[in-house]
Amino acid sequence: MTEAIEVVAFPRDVVGKANRRLASEGKIPAVLYGHDRSTTVLAVDRHDFELLMSHHAAGSTIVSLTIEGEKRPVNAVIKEVQHSPVKGNILHVDFQVIRMDEVINVTMAIRYVGDPAGVKAGGVLTENVHAVNVQAKPKDLVEAIDVDVSALEIGESLRLGDVEVPKGMKVLDDAEEILCSVLPPAVVVEVEVEAVEEEAEPEVIGEKPAEES
Asked: How far apart are CA 29 and CA 175, in angstroms?
């Protein structure tokens, strides 16, 4: 079970380009929405939130959101984190209100564990999927779905339907989707270069032909 992580948020009254001021204050703009609550614009401390995201994934991370000025914290999930395509820093955060006794749809990270037998034999592991969509109650969510790839031999693949997910969780994606495969090692082809026939010695310019005797 994923425990709720405490996050402090601050109400904000600026939106759009005015959010540049938040950057100078070391804050990230955010919104909170869901259930009967009207959309609330917020800000979170950049240092604290980036530290949180360095250990947790968006989609399945449950937070207890303490909003300055409100008496009770709000249970929410980090629904989406937007990053700058250039610098990679966090630009915006979406929080979705949840109820602990209701089923929710979230994106769950896939974590591959183990050393495939095929890799030990010289093959190469290719990871095609790193997250899947699941349905569960918040109490049944985990940090990530562990996929054991130890038994994979060269030429074998692992389908989503082959993975045993934690109790209480339902996978919403196609069971036939290939998660990972062990490919044969790359074959180095040696190209034999044919010897080039020795060219005839070129005629020296200016050299006179031998006179007939």
From this structure: 37
C-alpha neighbours within 13 Å on the C-beta side of residue 86: 0
48-104 pLDDT, tens digit each: 999 998 888 777 788 999 999 899 999 999 988 999 888 888 999 999 999 988 999
Q: For residues 193 and 85, what is the distance between their CA atoms, to the nearest angstrom?
A: 46
C-alpha torsion sign, points 136, 111, 97, 4: positive
The fold of 105-183 is: RNA Polymerase Alpha Subunit; Chain A, domain 2 (2.170.120)
| Tokens representing residue 69 in the block | 């000025």
Domain covering 5-98, topology: Ribosomal Protein L25; Chain P (2.40.240)
What pLDDT, in 10s, does the model give residues 152-162?
Answer: 999 999 999 99
Phi, psi of 168 (to 5 degrees): 90, 0
24 φ/ψ angles, rounded to the nearest 5 degrees: -70, -20
How far from chain centre, in Å, is Cα 115?
Answer: 20
The string of DSSP codes covering 103-149 is -EEEEEEEEEES--HHHHTT-EEEE--SEEEEEE-GGG--S-EEEE-
The count of residues in the chain is: 213
